[in-house]
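Attaching the record inline, Q. Sequence:
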Amino acid sequence: MTAAVLVAHRTSGRRTAWAWARLGAGGATLAFLVWHLGTGPFLDGLRAVDVVALLAASGLAALTTVCCAWRWRIVARGLGADLPMGTAVAAYYRSLFLNLTLPGGVVGDVQRGIDHGLRAVAWERSAGQVVQAVLTLAVLLVLPSPVRPVMPFVALALLAAAAGVALAARARPAVGHSRRARLRRAAARDMREGLLARRAWPAVAVASALVVAGHAVTFLIAARTAGVTAPASSVLPLALLVLVAAALPNIGGWGPREGVTAWAFAAAGLGASLGVTTAVVYGAMVLFASLPGAAVLVAASVYRGAAHV
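Structure, as predicted:
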């Protein structure tokens, strides 16, 4: 067996082990919550979900999905790809449904990238996460939360990282023909053309801000549905913390979200059980709101089947 084959096998093995480790961490989080709190908070969350909450989640999801598709289209155009808005919306709905129903939380994005270009999807998702981080930081600096004392240090670290990325994007492309030099030049070019261009970054920022706002409002509705009576100004910082955790590797959307919600609610004096109940309501709401993605999957399967007849 050649050295190249050995390296490939080792790399594949490490990736597989890391994937199982991430899934195991999500499963362990859920198991710990059930062991510590029992199944009551989970069942309470399922019982609390009502039609009003589901309809509200569907309306907000339609808004956020259109904004995500718009952001994706802008980035793709900057990278030289033409992506029709209808195609982008349908593909994004399918991506959301797959992310929420399959382990890992990124299967839908990977499929979207395979179908329409991995570069645009990667940069579009990265841009959304950057805007989310900035908005989360701003809210956590202003409103009381369990993490407020450490937020100034987090802000300094993020500012330093942002300055480094900006310098790297504007720096002269690296000289050389190595794979690393080529990747560095390609990344800098993608950032300039897909994200930082004057015609791109304002729209990307606005679309991403609307997406974060829609998800935060959905969580606030879930909290009210679960029985939280605290003012919105107290729940909003917790919601943004949970949204950050929801982006971590998970099991069909479950795991880190419930763990962070339980911790945040407990630290805020609202109770870990109520936090889990709220997370379950939120999970049910976003899963229901993603069902148009299932319709897109079915329609695509029917179309492929008809094409092969």
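The CA atoms of residues 20 and 104 lie 9 Å apart. The two ends are 44 Å apart (CA to CA).

More tomorrow.
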